[in-house]
Design brief:
It comes from Desmophyllum pertusum. GO terms for molecular function: oxidoreductase activity. One of its GO terms (biological process) is polyamine catabolic process. With 224 residues, this protein is of the alpha+beta class. 39% of the residues lie in helices and 11% in strands. The chain is built from six helices and seven strands. It has a three-stranded antiparallel β-sheet with strand order 5-7-6, with no helix packed on it. Strands 1-2 form a two-stranded parallel ribbon. A two-stranded antiparallel ribbon has the order 3-4.
Length: 224
């Protein structure tokens, strides 16, 4: 880590500590940043870079980093928050890709086509015809419908509505499982709460299993 980054992180830690120690003596500031996750720390960094120091960073946990946090269990590093690097071939993730190479981060490339679906009795009910239909025809229809709506400047809609409009209905148990795996799990919420325009961004996903922890990507202090 560079001296500048080290100094910045030390300053953030001191700022958060100062809030806890001086809350009774000073309660006003021009800027209040709620949370010391990546967004909060980036906001604080931006303020400091613009010579604004009259601010507080308030964090409710006993560590900073937000969703980037890990614990040790029986000699293993267990991530309790962020664990993936999504869409590694997108421009937005270029800094993470660079950091991954620099640190020789270990992990697993995800292969979403290598799945087995079992029922409540453990029986293999994998239906490759349905899986291929969803992965190819349905995703193609989604992309076409997204492009058509955007070209016509039509407003966004819930993903559930978009799926129904292109003909996808999850009636059978295996269809519900497939939908959960492809949509709910991927977006961390059901299609009813997901933007239709955000479905199925293309790119590789990398699951971090490095014993040094996901925090290698950011070098954020993980405890106070």
């Amino acid at each position: 880590m560079s001296q500048a980054n080290s100094a910045f992180l030390a300053a953030i830690c001191l700022l958060i500590l100062s809030v806890a120690s001086s809350a009774e003596t000073r309660k006003e500031a021009k800027v209040l940043i709620l949370g010391a996750g990546l967004s909060g720390i980036t906001a604080a960094k931006t303020l400091l870079e613009n010579n604004i120091t009259d601010f507080y960073v308030l964090e409710g946990q006993d560590y900073i980093g937000g969703r980037i946090h890990a614990v040790q269990f029986e000699g293993f590093t267990i991530e309790t928050g962020a664990n993936w690097v999504h869409l590694l071939n997108d421009e937005d993730t270029a800094p993470l890709v660079k950091r991954k190479k620099e640190t020789e981060m270990s992990g697993v490339w995800c292969n979403y086509s290598d799945v087995i679906i079992r029922d409540e009795n453990g029986q293999d009910i994998t239906d490759w015809e349905i899986i291929h239909t969803f992965d190819n025809k349905i995703e193609e229809k989604i992309e076409e419908f997204q492009w058509t709506r955007k070209r016509r400047n039509m407003p966004d809609i819930p993903a559930r509505v978009g799926l129904q409009l292109i003909g996808w209905k999850s009636n059978r148990p295996i269809e519900k499982v497939l939908e959960y795996f492809r949509l709910d799990f991927e977006h961390a919420k059901p299609p009813d709460l997901v933007s239709f325009y955000q479905l199925f961004s293309k790119g590789k996903d990398f699951f971090v299993s490095d014993p040094r922890g996901y925090g290698l990507f950011t070098k954020i202090c993980t405890s106070l």
